[in-house]
Amino acid sequence: MMRTQVACERPDRVRAVPEGDGGEPPARPPAGARIEIRPARMEDEDRMRGFLCDLSPRTQVLRFFTALGNPGAGLVRSLLRVDERRDVLVAVCGETVVGHAMSFSRGAAEVEISVVVADRWQGSGLGSRLVGRLLHRAEAGGARTVGMDVLGENRRVLAMIRGWWPDATMKASSGTVEVAARLRRSPVPAGRRAVRASVR
């Protein structure tokens, strides 16, 4: 199953990812920065590698459940590959990737999602936009339920999921929580949903 790291919709609300790793908060996004959310392309490989390398160790762990080190070409390509079961979106600011979201169809009505946002963009609502767009596309393709893995220590994300999907089922196993929810019952409007984080 995929893993989850969520960026909050508003910076003044609960943050899913702590501010930085060693005391100093990450730099904030530049004022007036324009973000484009679009389908991933294989020519994004270098931009995607740079994005992964720039994630803080904490964000890497929340997304991938491990630190990445120097991400290999195989991992980068797998995060960009789109096929009949996999949808991938990137958020770009100019030529820089600042967010990544992917879904994987596990059947006619079930989809797993995974999203990660650059540290400086966490808390800006970008994660919610990515998840909303991803789930809107999944629902258009027939998905009715969404699944995700969340680190058990990530209590803020789990609390947000409970708020969005009160009827979601959560199953703890080996330090992670498997979440399953019905998309039609989500109170998060299309285009404004949450985010998740990793692929095994």
Automatic annotation (TrEMBL):
InterPro entries from the UniProt entry: Acyl_CoA_acyltransferase, GNAT_dom
Tagged with keyword Chaperone: no
PROSITE patterns: GNAT
Region: Disordered, residue numbers: 1-32
Domain N-acetyltransferase: 35-184
Enzyme class: transferase
Keyword annotations of the record: Acyltransferase, Transferase
Coiled-coil stretches: none
EC number(s) reported in the record: 2.3.-.-
Biased composition (Basic and acidic residues): 9-18
GO molecular function: acyltransferase activity
Name of the protein described by the UniProt record: GNAT family N-acetyltransferase
